[in-house]
Specification:
By secondary structure, chain A is an alpha/beta fold. Chain A has two domains: 5-126 and 279-327, NAD(P)-binding Rossmann-like Domain (Rossmann fold); 130-276, 2-Layer Sandwich (Dihydrodipicolinate Reductase, domain 2), CATH 3.30.360. In chain A, 36% of the residues lie in helices and 26% in strands. Chain A has helices at 14-24, 40-44, 77-86, 101-115, 129-140, 156-163, 179-186, 195-198, 213-221, 239-245, 278-298, 320-326; strands at 5-10, 29-36, 52-54, 67-70, 90-92, 118-120, 144-150, 153-154, 168-177, 199-207, 231-236, 251-261, 265-275, 303-305. In chain A, strands 3-2-1-4-5-6-14 form a seven-stranded parallel beta sheet, with helices on both faces. In chain A, strand 4, helix 3 (77-86) and strand 5 form a beta-alpha-beta unit. In chain A, helix 1 packs across helix 11 (278-298) and helix 3 packs parallel to helix 4. Chain A is globular. Chains A, B: Belongs to the diaminopimelate dehydrogenase family. Chains A, B: It catalyses: meso-2,6-diaminopimelate + NADP(+) + H2O = (S)-2-amino-6-oxoheptanedioate + NH4(+) + NADPH + H(+). Chains A, B: InterPro entries: Diaminopimelate_DH_Ddh, Meso-DAP_DH_C, NAD(P)-bd_dom_sf. Chains A, B: Substrate binds at residues 150, 175, 201, 251, 278.
Chain lengths: 328, 328
């Protein structure tokens, strides 16, 4: 029997819990320990039968873990943790600040090379699966136009922005693709869209007692960068309704490329996701790329890699011969 | 300036002409010559400004061509041509007899290794892009169920079967996915379908003068393997209408996987194509993989490869750094 891939999780929020669930769905993997900056005792008290270890002890697990899945946030956790851990372990992360990826790549690449380790950065679904489909569609249809739509789904950044508005107790924001825009593209058009023509923003807000709802609404819809360029709806609801109806983390979206070939034949490539749980899905992508990281390392590779660099066959537990026979 | 990738085309039917068009859309490539078993003079007489060469002279072009794109059929051409040419050139083909791929792979792999060449086999969209999406979706959502739908599009094999029915002068068959089946999957169900519940078959037939239309219809709808297991419609039309309305080669389809993660969150991954020209699109995929073949060979690789073995970044003319910056 082949030895299981031994996985560590660094960071135990929604994404880390999703990784734990995803590992349980993959019989060729096992979870060794969860690393966190929180007191391991506070995590153990939840009654979960997991080994929790303080992050400061992570180096002691070098020999026990084949690949570390980094589940921190892109704003402050990963820029620090990935280069640090990439020198010690093969790693996978979901660093998603698109504009900073080149710099992040360089830092992780250097650290991983020095440690002789393999790091897969910026995987998940965007960056990740969506990026792969953008690349694939552009390479196949060089004459064409491409669109990415996000949603319907909860945007954490925009939900946070709502909660900073004076008088707001709680709130959640859904990014919603405009169906008319998608229909136009699917009908073969390649329009240029204004920002507000592609996505709408729907906010569900719990106001503090006595707060001025009109003032809150105005503060949200006119907020620059976040809402001013969009058609934004604001619906006031109760705390109970928020908890009952809006506690999930659905998301999804599409990458669509319309191109032409030959004497003007229209061709369309479309990739879409509809996710009831964004963090669980992202976690499932990370876990598949953890398998790929181990395989690349076994080939003697080291340094940073992205989804563009990795053969798809490395994501599957099946052998190359099985894949050719069953899936090609 | 970087030297262009020098391409040869072997076989000049619909697919070969599609490859010629696709090369013209990719500024990093140039077409050197078209190889055919037909008399080059008969091809030149069409007035096309191309170099046509008889297949028997192909070996003389070893130094002039970086990659040969094989555009013959899977029934008889490719099983013979790919192993033969794979020993002489880097090659790309669209061998699509799914059941015979393992044996084909072995033969091409041996030939290419002996010649020190790199052969990408069985690319296009199915096998090809659809296979990649089956693999990707299964790897990410191991608990789930997957569906492939084809169409709406013209099936050459079924059109040929119609034309063999006594009394039929000409005809074309469209494979059409059943919308109710797709809707059920998209709504989150994971049903088991009978063959007839997934696809319908619509036939447009030109009868010979005086032929018995009812007999033709009955012969078609009851034909085993091809039509008996499907809901098949037969519409009689004139030769003029056939030529006017049914001379295109549209196709497409979907790969959909519905899975669950965590405590039962439903997740759906969907990849779809809508193609006005099936051969031109397949050709565009072959051309992108020709670029990948040259890159893999430049890395020192040889032997046969499938879409599962090739990093997506190799399909693009852009550098890895550009891809990370622009598309990730």
């Amino acid at each position: 029997m082949q030895q299981k891939i031994r996985i560590g999780i660094a960071g135990y929020g929604n994404l880390g819990r999703g990784v734990r669930s995803a590992i349980a769905q993959n019989p060729d993997m096992e979870l060794v320990a969860v690393f966190s900056r929180r007191d391991p005792k506070s995590l153990e008290q939840r009654g979960e039968s997991l080994r929790f270890v303080h992050m400061s002890d992570v180096e002691r697990y070098k020999e026990e873990i084949d690949v570390m899945i980094l589940c921190g946030g892109s704003a402050t956790d990963l820029p620090e943790q990935t280069p640090q851990l990439a020198a010690l372990f093969h790693t996978v992360d979901s660093f998603d600040t698109h504009a900073k990826i080149p710099e992040f790549y360089d830092r992780v690449h250097t650290a991983a090379l020095l440690g002789g380790k393999l790091s897969v950065i910026s995987t998940g679904w965007d960056p990740g699966l969506f990026s792969m489909n953008r690349l694939l569609a552009q390479s196949i249809l060089p004459e064409g136009k491409e669109y990415t739509f996000w949603g319907s789904g909860v945007s954490q950044g925009h939900s946070d922005a709502i909660r900073r508005v004076p008088g707001v107790r709680a709130g959640v924001q859904y990014t919603v693709p405009v169906q008319a825009a998608i229909d136009a593209i699917r009908s073969g058009e390649t329009p240029e869209f204004e920002t507000r023509e592609k996505h709408a923003r729907n906010c569900y807000v719990v106001a503090e007692d006595g707060a001025d709802e009109n003032a809150i609404r105005e503060a949200i819809v006119s907020m620059p960068n976040y809402f001013a360029d969009y058609d934004t709806s604001v619906t006031f609801i109760t705390q109970e309704e928020l908890e009952r109806e809006h506690s999930g983390m659905p998301h999804g979206g599409f990458v669509i490329r319309s191109g032409v070939t030959g004497a003007g034949s229209k061709q369309r490539i479309e990739f879409g996701l509809e996710l009831e749980s964004n963090p669980e899905f992202t976690a499932s992508v990370l876990v598949a790329y953890a398998r790929a990281a181990v395989r690349l390392a076994a080939e003697g590779q080291s340094g940073a890699r992205t989804v563009f660099d990795i053969p798809l066959g490395h994501l599957s537990p099946k052998s190359a011969a099985e894949l050719r026979r069953e899936l090609l």
